[in-house]
Amino acid sequence: MLPREYEEEDHDKRAVPRLVGGAMILVGVLVGWTWIPGGIWLVFIGEWRLIVAGVFVMLVAPIAFGLALAIPGLLFAVPGIAALGRDNRALGYPLLFLGSLCDQALLMGWAFVTLRFVASRSGENLLPALLWSPLLALGPWVFMSEKGGDEAVASWLSIAVASLVYFGAAVAYYFVAADWEVIALAFGGGGLVAALMCARMFTRVMREGNPWASQP
C-alpha cells in the first residue's frame, strides 16, 4: 500500500483528466444529441436557411475564432506563462485570468448572439431551430478543442460551462420567453465562472504537467 501522501497526490493527478473527461461527455450529450434531430427536423420541413448557415459557420468560424483568440493569447497568456516561469505569481495569475476572460467573452458572446439570431428568425419553427442551433453556437469550439489535442484541457471546461448556460437559456426562452437582458447576464456570469475555472486549471497543468500528454 502506498503512503497516504502518495495516494492523495495520485488522486489529485487523476482529478484533472476525470474532470475534463466529464466535461467532454457533457458537451457530447448536450451538443451532439440535439443538433442531429434538429437538423433532420429542419430538412423535413424544408427550412434550409439554418442548415446552410450551420455548414458555413462550421467551415469559417474555426479559422476566424483561431485568429481572434491569438490576440489575448499574445497580450496576456504568453506574458503570464513567462511570469509564472519566473515564479512571479502576483503577475502571472492575473495575466492568465485576463487571457481566459477574453476567451470566455468571445465564446459566450458568440453563443448569446447565435441564440438571439436563431430565436428571432425561426418563427413557428422555433423548436427545431433551437435544437439545431448548438451546432452554430458551440460546434466550432468543439471542433477546435478536438484539434487541440492534449493542449485543449481547459477548453473543454469552458465549452461545458457554455453548453449548460446555452441550453438553460434556450429552455428559458422557449418555455417562459425569458428577457434577453436576463439571458445576457446568465452568459456573462457563466463566462466569469469559466474564466476562473480555466485559469486555475491552466496553472495547475503548468505546475503538475498535463496528465493526458503521455496518453495516446
**Helical region count?**
7
- Our estimate of the beta-strand percent is under 5%
Tally of domains: 1
Mean pLDDT: 81
Main sheet properties: none
Write the layout of secondary structure elements.
Layout: H1 4-45, H2 48-85, H3 89-121, H4 126-137, H5 139-148, H6 153-176, H7 180-208
Please explain how this structure is put together.
This protein has 216 residues and is an all-alpha fold. The chain has one domain. Helices cover 87% and strands 0% of the residues. The chain has seven helices and no strands. The chain is elongated, with a radius of gyration of 19 Å. The two termini are 28 Å apart.
Task: Please tag this protein with its features.
216 residues; 7 helices; disordered N terminus
Short summary:
This protein has helices at residues 4-45, 48-85, 89-121, 126-137, 139-148, 153-176, 180-208.
